[in-house]
Amino acid sequence: MIKKIIKNINKLRQSPISYAKSKGVNIGKNCKIAIDEWGSEPYLITIGNHVHITTNVQFINHDGGVWVFREEIPNFDVFGRISIDDNSYIGNNAVIMPGVQIGKNCVIGANSVVTKNIPDNTVAAGVPATYICSTEEYKLKMMKINTNLKYKDDVLKREAIEKLPLNAFIYKKTLK
After folding, report:
1. Which fold does the domain 2-134 belong to in CATH?
2. Would the pTM of this model clear 0.90, i.e. be above it?
């Protein structure tokens, strides 16, 4: 109980990046990190430059399924390194499984489970995560509805958004 309290105090006293580094995560420059849980082997995680890890992302560095063999082989344990290359974005609640490498310029959709390596310049999403499009295709699609409101004050941003026509918003097709 005391260890847990000390751990929580340490989290509060440090930035998410400083805390991750203190746990052994290798993090590049200009990253934005919104989590403070790094799994049981954080020292097996490498994050490149300009990577954004959003809320509730989980890193799994071991295969707990070998539990079923522990009576036969008591010390059975396996691990996998995880790496995320430069200029990538990991969406809310994504789960990154052991041994996964996410390339440069990648976007991982919210709630995705990444079970395989993701090549450079790829948008992937789903359970398990699959190829959606290239990041260039994604950029071209999103440029059509770009509002240029990123750094506006909240009041001005809201006023501008409320005046936008319907075709200026993200629109999803109906499931068939």
Report:
1. UDP N-Acetylglucosamine Acyltransferase; domain 1 (2.160.10)
2. no
